[in-house]
């Protein structure tokens, strides 16, 4: 996704028209293609926040301890074996999945705002918009409650927080 992260942008959407927004992204668990790593992408607009959570399910990791390299060890996470040679695994063996977010909790100062939405979209009411506009210039904590009960704790970067002053 090639967007200007953490900067106010004018989005032109054929269905919703034009609006001001800011994109934020955070990686958890290291590089996106590490098994179990997560990426949280959010789009903050005046009326709502949209969240995308991707998880690397590590499909290749399900083949642990199968096969051998010439040194007696085989790493199915990163390589495959053929005719006594080791080759890097192709990228398509990585499995990225998206998760459905049922609730979003956002901590601004000492106040925790709980947002409920549908299809990973959460409305921003006037009270929250004022809090976001006046949020301190630092990373802010968010908690995403996924369908099924899992939680993912992440942060909104301070440059995105700074951009909220323009959005709200």
Structural summary, described in words:
- With 168 residues, this protein is mainly β.
- The chain contains 2 helices and 12 strands.
- The protein has helices at 126-133, 158-167, and strands spanning 9-13, 17-28, 38-45, 48-56, 79-82, 85-88, 96-99, 101-108, 111-118, 121-123, 140-146, 151-156.
- The radius of gyration is 20 Å and the shape is globular.
- Mean pLDDT is 82; it is low at 60-82.
Show the helix and strand layout:
Elements: E1 9-13, E2 17-28, E3 38-45, E4 48-56, E5 79-82, E6 85-88, E7 96-99, E8 101-108, E9 111-118, E10 121-123, H1 126-133, E11 140-146, E12 151-156, H2 158-167
Antiparallel strand pairs: 1-2, 2-3, 3-4, 4-7, 4-10, 5-6, 8-9, 8-11, 9-10, 11-12
3D shape: globular
Oligomeric state of this protein: single chain
The count of β-strands is 12
* Count of DSSP H/I helices: 2
Radius of gyration: 20 Å
Amount of beta strand: over 45%
Order of helices and strands: EEEEEEEEEEHEEH
Mean pLDDT: 82
Distance between the termini: 24 Å
Sequence stretches where pLDDT stays below 50 over 5 or more residues: 60-82
Fraction of residues in helices? Answer: 10-25%
Structural class by sheet pairing and helices = mainly beta
Sheet having the most strands: 10 strands, antiparallel
